[in-house]
Specification:
The chain is mainly α. The protein has 19 helices and no strands. The chain has 2 domains: 89 residues; 300 residues, no CATH class.
Length: 433
């Protein structure tokens, strides 16, 4: 339900006075995936006017609840603000339901719409959206597939390739380190098999499958080369094979992440909500209510998905930067410390920016603590073990959070794939006309 204009006016004053642009930008990126000034409003206005424009846009799109819930969480002790939110949008003071639960509500609404297709008015209204519905069904499947492939490669990334290269250098001399390489090569075997199957699920039209198989073929060859090097206990070929794997992992996950972003952006869930809203007046009471609840579910699913994807993309970029500094720590060349001092401040800003998404969470506090300790170590005159260990502490905290975000996005994509079949069924039914 749209916000009452009087409630918008009251909230714009309280939020405008209580939030600065930086924190409100974080709120918007976290809850919708779009920055305050990049996606929602123009710059240059006083905060009260900025918030007024923002709330009107959120209300017009029906996604105000997610944003107001985050604002309320950040100002739990601000009674005037929480009272105003309670008046304007009482449900915003409740925890947002999980995507999986909302997908269940959406499935019930889609089932109600399907049962009502015998009604000529309902059928005619949905027929105008047949292309939209079919497109969403296909895109949901593609999104899930890209996420599965990305997640599989991400698991390979979590193993420190710098450590594995060290094991390769010791191949033949250290049985325990050789076992690390055998374990990793076995994981590569499994990954190649899984990815091959997922690529087969991608659209067969165009060059989509061919483009993905090109890099998979390179990964499979590197895996075969590593297997042979381990069988022969040849250090040089093992190092070359790991370098080939590293080059693939340095570029492909980032590209896949962009494709996940594109697929998520292509999910026009707000238009699906509008299509369902268009048939509601023609439905009897029970079905109409179920379709209305499905529309409300979409107003929570869509911004949550975009927010999650944007956060995942930001962590992916951070992980790439971490990998570069990892190499500096591994080789410790004569210019390593100077390069570390150049790249660390940028990495720290990016990590602390995302830590501000959950400032009270333990992972965010720990990350800030270890980043501060690393700043103290960087004044040393050499790339020694203490500095490398300090960076390792930051790295493990950042990657722990990346893993959590990655897992949540995978869960969301997995839940959403359930809507593909009923949407395809609707399209098939409408195609009989």
């Amino acid at each position: 339900m749209p916000l009452d204009p009087a409630a918008i006016d009251a909230l714009s004053i309280l939020i405008g006075d209580g939030f600065g642009p930086d924190e409100l930008d974080i709120v918007m990126r976290k809850t919708t995936g779009g920055g305050l000034f990049k996606a929602w409003v123009g710059q240059g206005k006083p905060m009260r006017d900025t918030v007024l424009e923002l709330l009107r846009k959120l209300s017009d799109r029906g996604i105000e609840r997610a944003v107001l819930t985050e604002i309320a969480l950040r100002r739990r002790t601000d009674s005037p603000l929480t009272d105003a939110i309670r008046t304007a949008c009482p449900e915003a003071l409740e925890a947002l339901p999980a995507t999986e639960a909302q997908v269940g509500v959406l499935l019930t609404g889609l089932a109600a719409a399907a049962v009502s297709l015998n009604d000529p008015e309902v059928r005619a209204a949905l027929a105008t959206s047949k292309g939209l519905i079919g497109g969403i069904a296909e895109t949901v499947g593609t999104l899930r597939t890209y996420k599965e492939i990305h997640d599989c490669l991400h698991q390979l990334q979590f193993r420190q390739l710098s450590n594995l290269r060290g094991a390769a250098r010791a191949l033949g001399d250290d049985p325990l380190r050789e076992a690390e390489l055998v374990d990793y090569q076995t994981r590569l075997d499994s990954a190649c098999t899984l990815i091959d199957g997922w690529i087969a699920d991608l659209p067969a039209t165009g060059l989509t499958q061919q483009l993905e198989r090109a890099w998979l073929d390179r990964l499979a060859k590197a895996n075969a080369d590593l297997r042979q090097a381990l069988a022969d206990r040849q250090s040089g070929p093992a190092q070359v094979a790991l370098a080939d794997v590293a080059r693939i992992l340095a570029t492909v996950p980032s590209r896949l992440n962009e494709q996940i972003v594109v697929a998520a952006d292509a999910l026009e869930l707000d238009r699906l909500g509008a299509a369902l809203g268009g048939i509601r007046p023609a439905l009897p009471a029970p079905a109409g209510e179920e379709v209305a609840r499905a529309g409300a579910a979409l107003t929570l699913i869509a911004p949550a998905l975009h927010g999650r994807v944007a956060e995942h993309r930001a962590w992916q970029e951070i992980d790439i930067k971490i990998g570069y500094i990892d190499d500096l720590c591994d080789h410790r060349g004569p210019d390593a410390l100077a390069e570390f001092a150049i790249y660390w401040p940028d990495l720290k800003r990016a990590i602390l920016d995302l830590s501000a998404y959950e400032p009270e969470a333990q992972w965010a506090k720990d990350t800030g603590l270890y980043a501060g300790r690393l700043d103290d170590q960087i004044t040393r005159d050499q790339m020694d073990d203490a500095l490398v260990a300090a960076f390792a502490n930051v790295r493990v905290k950042a990657r722990f959070r990346f893993f959590a975000v990655d897992r949540s996005l995978k869960s969301d994509c997995g839940a959403l794939v359930a809507i593909s079949a009923p949407l395809q069924s609707l399209v098939a039914e409408l195609s009989d006309d």
